[in-house]
Amino acid sequence: MSVFFNSKPFKQLSHIPGEFGQPYVGLFPRFLKSSKESHRYLYDTYGPVVKVALLGQPSIMLYHPDGIEKILYDKLNVFSSHQGYANIDDVFPRGLLFRDGEDHHFHRRIMQAAFTPKALQGYIPDLNRNAKIYLDHYDKQSDVLFYPDVKHALLTTASTVFMGAKDEKEIAFLSSHYRELLNGTRSVLRVDLPFLPWGKMIQTRKELVNYFLENAKNKRASNNNDMYTLLCQATDEDGNTYDDHEIADHMNFLMFAAHDTLSGQLSSMVYRLAAHPEWQD
């Protein structure tokens, strides 16, 4: 786990072992070559608590469960997810992951309505239906470029299960727009020009927000069991609800979280299974 610090408090941590690497870039080139080997090197060389610098950003690497527990529980509210994920928060602002303290707890309590046992059971039919479609597709292919294919499959599934999209045109709209948003997260030159990835991302996000705002009223009156509908109708024990803009913010991030990390994990798993056929038995 990484904990980022601004320059002032970081000077107070000079007693922590570690290294800063090259000027400006720090240890970033090393991590770019192999993140796994870099973490192993730091742990073996300096122990479970290590200070480093990555692209000019001072940070502490924690490799011990007790330290990670303190960060995750954060009982004193001294750590900020919002600041730690600033590069993604620009693309998916005000998502649940990027909220801190009581604001995070407030929004999480309302969101729980979309993750009750009844709600989760309601997602299963569409999940199974989409899984069968893509498994049948793989059975008919001699060769598959797995990562882009599974990314498309997960985006389509998320559009159906999370958004309740049934129309092919609507699914295509959502899939293409979320691919464009993901391209924005990788943009180094963050300038709002329409021909640059960052500028395209900004326009894409506006179109998605408008999509959510236009559909929120119908979703509040709907009997569907997709996640978008449930969030539009969700209340906590005190009767608090999300407004339309909050729903747009949460759904944008949930769609991102639904497929981006999972597609990478599935690709790694399939690669290892292919590299070790004996594991398939």
What does this structure look like?
With 281 residues, this protein is mostly helical. The protein folds into two domains: 2-79, no CATH class; 108-280, Cytochrome p450. It has 13 helices and three strands, in the order βαααββαααααααααα. The chain has helices at residues 7-10, 28-33, 35-46, 65-73, 81-84, 86-89, 101-111, 117-139, 146-161, 168-185, 197-220, 227-233, 244-275; strands at residues 2-4, 49-54, 57-62. Helix 9 packs antiparallel against helix 13 (244-275). The radius of gyration is 21 Å and the shape is globular. The two termini are 34 Å apart. The mean pLDDT is 89.
User: C-alpha Rg, in Å?
Assistant: 21 Å
Structural class: mainly alpha
Residue share in helices?
Answer: 55-70%
For the sheet with most strands, the description reads:
3 strands, antiparallel
Instruction: Please identify, by name, the CATH architecture of the largest domain.
Output: Orthogonal Bundle
- Within CATH, the superfamily of the largest domain carries the name Cytochrome P450
**Low-confidence spans:** none
List keywords for this structure.
281 residues, mainly alpha, Cytochrome p450, 2 domains, three-stranded antiparallel β-sheet, 13 helices
Q: What topology does this entry show?
A:
Elements: E1 2-4, H1 7-10, H2 28-33, H3 35-46, E2 49-54, E3 57-62, H4 65-73, H5 81-84, H6 86-89, H7 101-111, H8 117-139, H9 146-161, H10 168-185, H11 197-220, H12 227-233, H13 244-275
Antiparallel strand pairs: 1-3, 2-3
Summary?
With 281 residues, this protein is mainly alpha-helical.
